[in-house]
Amino acid sequence: MTESALAAELLRQGIAAVKAGQKEEARRLLMQVVELDEHNEQGWLWLSGVVETIEDRRICLENVLTINPDNAHAQTGLAWIEQHAPAEPPAPAESEPPPVEEPASASAGAGRCPRCQAALPPAAQSCPQCGLPLLITCPACGQYADVENINCPHCGYTLGDFRQGAAYHLALAQAYQERGQRELALEALARAEAEKPDTPQLLEEIIRLYETADQPDRAIAAGERAVQIAPEEAALHARLGALYRQQGRMDQALHAFQKALALDDQNPTAMIGYARIKLEEEGATAEVMGLVEDLIEKQPTNAVGSLLLADLYLRQKRTAQARKFYEHACRLSSPDSEVGREALRKLTELQGGNAESPPKRAAIPSRAPTGARPGCLTVYAILLANSGFFALMGAIGIALMAGALQSQTAEFEALAPTSGMELTPVRLGTALWIGVALSLVSAVFSITIAIGLWRLKNWARLAVITLQSLGLLLGVLQTVMVVLSFRQMAAGVGYPGGFPIFSLVFLLAWFAVQGYILFWFIANRDIFA
What we know:
By secondary structure, this protein is mainly α. The chain has helices at residues 3-19, 23-36, 41-47, 54-67, 72-84, 104-108, 166-178, 182-194, 200-212, 216-229, 234-246, 250-263, 268-282, 286-298, 303-315, 319-332, 338-351, 375-419, 430-454, 458-491, 501-523; strands spanning 135-137, 144-146. It has a two-stranded antiparallel ribbon.
């Protein structure tokens, strides 16, 4: 135990002894406090109330004012000494001004636990019945306050209400950790666990604070208790799995992740943890790729998932995609975080450069990563599927109508000899059936490409590029033919000269839209698998 921690513990015991009326014990403990830390304001202040002479009391209070000239209790004590300096005060020690102001609740219920009302033994630091600590160290000023104080009497810091149980101690633990008071934080965490919390939020907070305090064994123990208390909470199983994995307990980690995914198959912590273990054991399998791509599709700003997907692409020798996702992970994470450092290191190794100029951070990626389907692509795929569906329905309808017409014609031809009518034979030409067949092929082709785009397949992208290129070429040829036709008509009688402005604007808009679609599919190669 460090000297500061030892001084704090001795001060706690000394204050408890003062309140219990054990003056000799209090003086002994408080003397040790100021010997360990001569700048301990509270140590000198409490010691001033248990020393034997006026002169010793003066020294104690002057030391307090040297440390803190604004201490009102020391100023009051010195003023009292100046008035009674010629002689020893005739009143007993109990009537002398107390070194600190006691809360009203303490004087009203002295010797009783404020929570369970059990009788307290002399110099008790906590209730032997319910375990409630009677003194709390203020995270802000480091001074002691009664557990009943909602605000610190010394600095006004909000301590909270002890009746909140585990939440009260967890808030203190968080405050201690933020100020680097590790031992006090661990003590508060132990008290929070002793309150036997049963809500998933409090259980997960205990695990998190143990992790932050670099106490993996305690965090795992807390996690194991948590999943027993709340076995249906996927987040707790996932958190426990992550702790197991950090400690190299892979079998237990895999079991915990599987349990979490069985409860919630979209839990990101479980998905990433399970995928990492499978990647280490089996490599970049289709199962692992599908799991991580599904995660990124639903959570495109998940930095850990982006880093893992980049690792998977690198395993598959797809360096362009790997580089993109390492950059994406760098943008989404802080350069000082573990994910940010790892992503930058791997990106640097991949590029063969240095790690001094990381990619600029961005809350949202400038281009959608693989697995995250852009909205414009979704709309295009839906429109393409709809056009294919209507073409299919049209082809089927024409085929059915043609078949019905052929059947009726055959019936009329059979009746013609008996009725004396002359009926010209009607035959459906081969061209009609070829048209129906082409419509069917076009419909199936459009629907197939739409499905491929929806699933981000590269062959679908290439098909769209090919079709768009052919469409633009045919559009140019048709435009040339129309322009030539208008010029010929302009030379004839009754036709105005020139090309209609409306038609020109329409053609330019059509070419712009088709050209943009072609450019988009060429430029966004990395989106497609």
